[in-house]
Structure formats: C-alpha cells, structure tokens
Amino acid sequence: MKQSSLKSPLARVKSLGSARSGTMHAWRLRLTAFALLPLTFAFIVIVVSLAGRDYESARALLGSPGAAILLILFVGAGIWHMTLGMQAIIEDYVHVEHKKVVSLMANICFSTLIGVAIIYALLRLSFT
Amino acid sequence: MAEADPAPLPLEQRRPLSPHLLIYKLSPTMVVSGGHRVSGLFLYIGTLLLAWYLLAAAGGAHSFQTASAFFGSFFGQLVLFGYTFALMLHAVGGVRHAIWDAGKGFEPEERKKLAWGSLIAAGALTILIWVAHFILT
User: Fold this and answer.
1) Is the whole-model pTM more than 0.80?
2) What is the pLDDT of residue A13?
3) For residue B57, what is the nearest residue in chain A, using CA coordinates?
4) CATH code for A23-127?
5) Residue B123 belongs to a domain with what CATH number?
6) Is the pLDDT score of A128 beyond 90?
7) Average pLDDT of A97-118?
8) Which residues in chain A touch residue B55, judged by CB atoms under 8 angstroms apart?
9) Partner of A39 for a Cys bridge, out of A53, A74, A88, B44, CB 3.0 to 4.6 A?
10) Is B9 within the bounds of a domain?
11) Nearest by CB to B50, which of A33, A34, A118?
12) Residue span of the structural domain in which B109 resides
C-alpha cells in the first residue's frame, strides 16, 4: 500500500466530509424491497394464471388495467432494487477503479434498457 | 486510490485481510447469506426472460408462439422452476433481513432457526406455487 500522507485512512476520510447521502443506498434498497413483497405476490398470481393460455387470452390478461398496473409497479420497483443490489456486488468484488466505474455504468445501462423494454411491451399490450 | 489494486505487492507486504469463506466452517447463516446474493444475481439475469416473453406477446401471435413454446418445454419449465425458487428465496431472505434490521433474531439459536426457516419456507412456497400451477392448467 502506498501511503502518501501520515494521516490515517480514517482521518483522511473524515476530513473529506460527509455528503449526507450515506444511507440513501440502504434506504432505497429497503424501500423497494418492502414494495416488492406484495408486488411479487401479484406477479406470481399473474404468471401462474398466464400459463397455458393462447395468444388472445394471454393478451387480454396482460392488457387488463389491474394486471398491467401491477406489472409496471413490479418491474419499476424490481429494476430499481436489482440495480442497487448489483451495485453492491460490484463494489464488493471489483476493486480496480476503471473496471469498477465501467461496471457501475454497465449495470445502470443494462437495468434501464431491460426496464424500458418491459414497460414498453406492457404499454403496447395495453394500448394496441 | 493506491490501495485499490493489491496485486503488485508481494504477499508478505500486503495488508492483512479478514478471514474469508475458505477459512470458516460452513454454517446455515453463510448458506442463506450466499444464497441471497446468488439468487439476486439469477433474478437480475432472469429479467431478460420476462422482457423476452412480454416483447413477444406485444409483437404478435407468431413471436408469442415461439416464446410460449420455450416456456412450455421441459427446459423452459426447469428454468422457470429455478426462477421461482430464486424469487422465493430472495423474498424470504428480504423478510429475514427486515427482522435483523429491527435488531431482533441475533442470538445463535435464533440465527440458525431463521436460516433454516428461510430455506424451508422458500422451498415450501416454490412447491405451493407449482402445485397451484398444475392444478389450474
């Protein structure tokens, strides 16, 4: 370890100051987790009742307001939650700075892409 | 960050690290802790399947048939069964973490019970969902 100053790592961090956002990651992870409990239940009910349906009746279910709203909420909370979770995994295991930054960006890009694709599909099922 | 990359230093000059997985005896809490992370990872990748299914349904009868055939196949059902267990394990794990967040369940016996209880509850919920599925179809 290269030590460029006599300050201990704790003293160095302390003088950098708090951005007052230290608990936001934990708070959002728990907020989305809390929302996901009932939404996961709704998701399971919808998926189980989708099984074995033909095209027309599957569309009818997915395009119904109740199912569409619950699925959009499930996907919104789920994508947000998984982005935060993957961020924690990356921060735990990727310690080389440039790799970490690229991984964090890739995580947000992938999650956003999947989230937008799913919500687009659900809206299209509802409105066409 | 100078300490970000430990590789260039010879082993004896590196800072001591805390003991890790290979040092400790495997315990139920370790299994569910690792299981929580791994199931989260599977659910992350699994969103691709949900996106595929919904885009296929939005795309029209032909693409819906293709996706439906995959999810109805033996391999597709196996993937969905694994996905169900991952989802249940992660959901039950979330409840376990909420209990710990509340400052409860930290005694050795309680921790052990919570860990085993999570595994049993996740397994039972998975089976319950698939029984409901087979009864309804």
Assistant:
1) yes
2) 75
3) A59
4) 1.20.1300
5) 1.20.1300.10
6) no
7) 98
8) 117-118, 120-121
9) A74
10) no
11) A118
12) 28-136
User: Could you tell me the residue ranges of all domains in chain A?
Assistant: 23-127
Interface of A with B (CB under 8 A): 1-4, 30, 33-34, 36-37, 40, 44, 48-49, 51-52, 55, 58-59, 62, 75, 78-79, 82, 85-86, 89, 95-97, 114, 117-118, 120-122, 124-125, 128
A52-90 residue pLDDT tens: 899 999 999 999 999 999 999 999 999 999 999 999 999
Torsion of CA B25, B31, B34, B35, to 10 degrees: 160
Rounded Cα distance, B79 and B46, in Å: 9
Q: What pLDDT, on the 0 to 100 scale, is given for residue B13? A: 79
Q: Report CB contact under 8 Å: B54, A59.
A: no
Contacts of A36 in chain B (CB under 8 A): 91, 94
What is the 3-class SS of A72-97, one letter each residue? HHHHHHHHHHHHHHHHHHHHHHCCCH
Give residue A2's pLDDT. 57
Average model confidence (pLDDT) for chain B? 92
Residues of A with Cβ-Cβ distance to B95 under 8 angstroms: 37
ipTM score for this prediction:
0.85
Q: List C-alpha distances in Å: A25 to A58, A79, A83, A89, A103.
A: 37, 14, 11, 13, 17
A99 pLDDT above the threshold of 60:
yes
Nearest chain A residue (CA) to B6: A1
Distance CA B134, CA B137 (A): 5
Q: Which of A3, A53, A55, A112 to mutate to test the interface with B (most CBs of B within 10 A)?
A: A55
Q: How far apart are CA B93 and CA B34, in angstroms?
A: 11
pLDDT tens for each residue of B27-55: 999 999 999 999 999 999 999 999 999 99
